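Ticket #387: bound-state structure for flavin-adenine dinucleotide.
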Amino acid sequence: MERDIYDEDHEAFRDVVKEFIKRYATDEKRKQWDADGEVDRATLRAAGESGIIGLAVPEEYGGAGMLQDYRFRAIVNEEVIGAGLGSLAGALGIQDDLAVPYVVHMGTDEQKQKWLPGMATGEILGALAMTEPGAGSDLRGIKTTAKKVDGGYVVNGAKTFISSGKTADMVVTFVKTGEGNRPDAFSLLILENGMAGFDHGKKLEKMGFHGWDTAELSFTDVFVPEENLIGGKEGLGFIQLMMNLPLERLSIGVAAAAAGEAAFVWTRDYTLSREAFGQSIADFQNTRFKLADMATTVDVMWAYIDRAMLLYKDKKLTAEEAAKVKFWATDREWELLDIGVQLHGGYGYITEYPIARAFLDARVHRIYGGTNEIMRDIVSRQIVGKR
Ligand SMILES: Cc1cc2nc3c(=O)[nH]c(=O)nc-3n(C[C@H](O)[C@H](O)[C@H](O)COP(=O)(O)OP(=O)(O)OC[C@H]3O[C@@H](n4cnc5c(N)ncnc54)[C@H](O)[C@@H]3O)c2cc1C
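RESOLUTION: The complex was predicted; output attached.
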C-alpha cells in the first residue's frame, strides 16, 4: 500500500541517506563493527557531515532543527536497517532519540551550547543511563545516589545494559537526589567520560546488535558540577524521563516497522531466487500465502505508525498511545522476522544473511525501552483505570 506521509524534502533526504550508506557504511565496515563491538567514530562523524545524525538539534546549534518531525528519523531507520545495518541504526538512534532530546528540550542554555554543536556533527556521542543491576522496569528502585556538595554532586552507584555506554562522551544519568521514591526524589545528571571515578565496566556480549556497544558503568565518588544538572533544577528527573517517553517508544516502533518491512523484502527476493523441486520456493502455495501475510502486516504496521508519527509531529502522541505502538509493532516485527527466517531455510540461520542478524537484533525490541509487559500494563491501566 502506498504511503503518503513523505514529501519532496523527505525523499531528497532519503537520497542523502542512501549516498551515505554507499560511501561510508559498506558490508566490510559492518563486519568490522561486529568484530569490534562498536561503530567506529569516523563513520559517525561522516554521518554528521552528511547531516543524518543529531537531526533534532536546532539550526542555531548547527543541527537540522527537525525537532518534532520524526519522518526524517524514520527514513534513516528504513534505509539503514533495510541495508542490513542494525547496529549503525541503533547507534544513530541512541544519539537522536535518547540523548539529544534531553538537552534540546530540557537543557539549560549553557548545556545546549556545550553539547549540541558536537552532537550535531557526530563528534560528541551521548547515552542514557537509567537501568541498574537491581532495577529496570521498576525505575524508582534505583540505588545510584547524587549527594549535594559545594558546587555540584558526588555520585555513587552503577548502571547496566547502557547502549553506547562505552563509546559515549556524555551520559544522561538517572540518579537519586532525594530520599524515598517519590517522583521528586530523582534528577538527571550529565556524567562525562573521563570524570574521576567514572568507570566503564565490561562491554556486554549480546545475542544481537553485535556492532553496537552495551556497557556496565560504575560511579565511585564522581564529582559532577552543578552545571551538569539537566534543566538546572533538582527533583525533575522522573518527570523529564516521562516527557521523552512518547518519542522513545515511537522510535522503537519505527525501527520495528523498518525491520519488518526489510524482512518482507529480503524474504520475497530470496524465495523468488531459490529453487526446489524444479520451481522457485516462492511458487509453493505455502510461501505465497506467507508472503501475502507479511505484505499485509507491513501495510497495516506502517499505516498505524505513520499516523503515530503525525500525531507526534502535532505534539498529540500520548505516552499511552506510544506504549501501544511500541508493543504492537515489536510483536509484529518478531513474527515477520520469524517467518522470514523460516522461508530462508538454513540460510536464515546464518548471520551472513541480513534476515538472521535482524532476527537476533529484534529480540531486544520487546525488552528495552520498557518491556512489552510494562507497555501492556500502561495501556490496560488507562482502560480499566489506575488501581
Ligand atoms: C541490549 C540492551 C540495551 C539496553 N539499553 C539501555 C539503555 O541504553 N539505557 C537504559 O537505561 N537501559 C537500557 N536497557 C535496559 C532495559 O531497558 C531493561 O532491561 C528493561 O527495561 C527491563 O528491565 P530489567 O532487565 O531489569 O527486567 P525486569 O524489570 O527485572 O523484568 C523481568 C521480567 O519481569 C517482567 N515485569 C517486570 N515488572 C512487571 C510488571 N509490573 N508487570 C508485568 N511484568 C513485569 C518484565 O516484563 C520482564 O519480562 C537495555 C537492555 C538491553 C538488553
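RESOLUTION NOTES: The pocket of flavin-adenine dinucleotide is lined by residues 128-131, 136-137, 161-163, 206, 214, 364, 367-368, 370-371, 373-374, 377 (CB under 6 Å).
TICKET STATUS: resolved
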